[in-house]
């Protein structure tokens, strides 16, 4: 018996409704996706991935193409950033069955991103490097944007009406008390740098190691309480389009979202990226690697972004437009037709990989009982370990005990969820100092 889909957030517009709306209305044309990048380097640890045509959901069918843009802000060396740039996209695509239609492909994408981030992190451990990296990973399929993030790089969206939406999460300890509690519960200490004979200084950090982030890829020497499970958000733009800005902390430490948009609005994506980097480095010079990617999602043949319709009235939105719970399921399509609305499809930032692998879509169509749900290695009969704490109870409710993990991925899951003490933590107290 197939597993039932998990409940959506209250009022969230289901993906199927949004996609069927495109069919029942006059078909929305594919947008033009334009990208610009700028960088000013101090340590040479920022890397990007820019692929306007990254692949096709159905091989050989250009109408199913999608775009990928990503920023990797490395620390303690560039190894983790380079490794993630070279391997993460392939791991995402391997985690999605090739037989899926567009609705299914988009529905499983958030879970595929979780599995791919964890696999990339696990595989990087074999390289035996101690570097780490933030990751902000954006996939654009027509008007649907999916963002997965770990670390403190930021991704924002400005819609055509001038509203700003946050598409990523901030995993700095200073900004995330829930992550402080999680890491502390795993056995690590979180606090500011303690100077002998003086006051505590600087941002909150994880000790040993001194990392100020709770999630990243790499950072093996800091311990497995620093996890690679990403925050994932998926939204759908109206056919008026919008502008996405992805930037490293070298930008956001000096600019607010409004400042970044104000200095770049009305310019092409390439010029906009350079203006943002220049504005961020102008007051105090280059103190850190400073990288910015600007992506314009535009109606076809609109080669330059238009100014927002309501300049000067920018609203910061953490909550996206959602369908009212009072709206009946058979609402006429005209009741949905509201221009320039950004609609939330999915969001989850839970650190629990067991939860992240078992929410949303019919699981048995994604995870073969004979394969590990993270690394995809083939499992021998009886070798797989269920992600559930009570597999028999889950089987009664959902019809099977999966998804399953191989022994090494299960061991990593247990460590990331704080069910065993971290191993391999660095004895170097000051370690990364990111």
UniProtKB/TrEMBL annotation:
<keyword id="KW-0464">Manganese</keyword>
<dbReference type="InterPro" id="IPR001932">
    <property type="entry name" value="PPM-type_phosphatase-like_dom"/>
</dbReference>
<dbReference type="InterPro" id="IPR036457">
    <property type="entry name" value="PPM-type-like_dom_sf"/>
</dbReference>
<protein>
    <recommendedName>
        <fullName>protein-serine/threonine phosphatase</fullName>
        <ecNumber>3.1.3.16</ecNumber>
    </recommendedName>
</protein>
<comment type="similarity">
    <text>Belongs to the PP2C family.</text>
</comment>
<feature type="region of interest" description="Disordered">
    <location>
        <begin position="415"/>
        <end position="434"/>
    </location>
</feature>
<dbReference type="Pfam" id="PF00481">
    <property type="entry name" value="PP2C"/>
</dbReference>
<dbReference type="InterPro" id="IPR015655">
    <property type="entry name" value="PP2C"/>
</dbReference>
<keyword id="KW-0904">Protein phosphatase</keyword>
<feature type="domain" description="PPM-type phosphatase">
    <location>
        <begin position="47"/>
        <end position="297"/>
    </location>
</feature>
<keyword id="KW-0479">Metal-binding</keyword>
<dbReference type="GO" id="GO:0004722">
    <property type="term" value="F:protein serine/threonine phosphatase activity"/>
</dbReference>
<feature type="compositionally biased region" description="Polar residues">
    <location>
        <begin position="424"/>
        <end position="434"/>
    </location>
</feature>
<dbReference type="GO" id="GO:0046872">
    <property type="term" value="F:metal ion binding"/>
</dbReference>
<keyword id="KW-0378">Hydrolase</keyword>
<keyword id="KW-0460">Magnesium</keyword>
């Amino acid at each position: 018996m197939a597993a039932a889909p998990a409940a959506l957030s209250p009022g969230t517009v289901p993906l199927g409704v949004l996609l069927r709306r495109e069919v029942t209305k006059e078909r929305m044309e594919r947008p033009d996706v334009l990208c610009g990048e700028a960088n000013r380097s101090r340590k040479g640890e920022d890397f990007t991935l820019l692929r306007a045509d990254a692949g096709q959901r159905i091989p050989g069918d250009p109408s199913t193409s999608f775009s990928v843009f990503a920023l990797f802000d490395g620390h303690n060396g560039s190894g983790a950033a380079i490794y993630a740039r070279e391997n993460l996209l392939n791991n995402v695509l391997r985690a999605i069955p090739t037989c899926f239609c567009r609705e299914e492909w988009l529905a499983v994408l958030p879970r595929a991103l979780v599995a791919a981030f964890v696999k990339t992190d696990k595989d990087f451990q074999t390289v035996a490097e101690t570097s780490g990296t933030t990751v902000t990973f954006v996939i654009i399929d027509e008007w649907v944007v999916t963002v997965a993030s770990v670390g403190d790089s930021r991704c924002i969206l400005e819609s055509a009406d001038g509203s700003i939406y946050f598409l990523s999460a901030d995993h700095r300890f200073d900004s995330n008390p829930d992550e402080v509690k999680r890491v502390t519960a795993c056995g690590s200490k979180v606090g500011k740098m303690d100077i002998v004979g003086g006051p505590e200084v600087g941002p909150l950090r994880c000790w040993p190691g001194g990392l100020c982030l709770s999630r990243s890829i790499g950072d093996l020497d800091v311990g497995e309480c620093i996890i690679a499970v990403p925050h994932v958000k998926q939204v759908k733009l109206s056919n008026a389009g919008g502008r996405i800005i992805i930037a490293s902390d070298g930008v956001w430490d000096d600019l607010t979202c409004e400042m970044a948009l104000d200095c770049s609005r009305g310019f092409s994506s390439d010029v906009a990226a350079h203006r943002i980097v220049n504005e961020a480095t102008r007051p105090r010079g280059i103190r850190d690697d400073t990288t910015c990617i600007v992506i314009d999602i535009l109606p076809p043949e609109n080669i330059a972004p238009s100014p927002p319709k309501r300049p000067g009235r920018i609203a910061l939105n953490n909550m996206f437009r959602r369908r009212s719970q009072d709206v009946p399921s058979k609402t006429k399509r005209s009741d949905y037709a509201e221009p320039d609305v950004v609609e939330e499809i999915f969001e989850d930032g839970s650190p629990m990989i067991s939860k992240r692998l078992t929410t949303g879509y019919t699981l048995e169509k994604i995870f073969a009982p004979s394969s590990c749900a993270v690394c995809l290695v083939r499992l021998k009969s009886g070798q797989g370990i269920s992600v559930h704490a009570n597999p028999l109870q889950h089987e009664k409710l959902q019809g099977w005990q999966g998804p399953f993990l191989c022994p090494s991925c299960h061991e990593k899951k247990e460590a990331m969820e704080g069910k065993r003490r971290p191993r391999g933590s660095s004895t170097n107290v000051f370690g990364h100092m990111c």
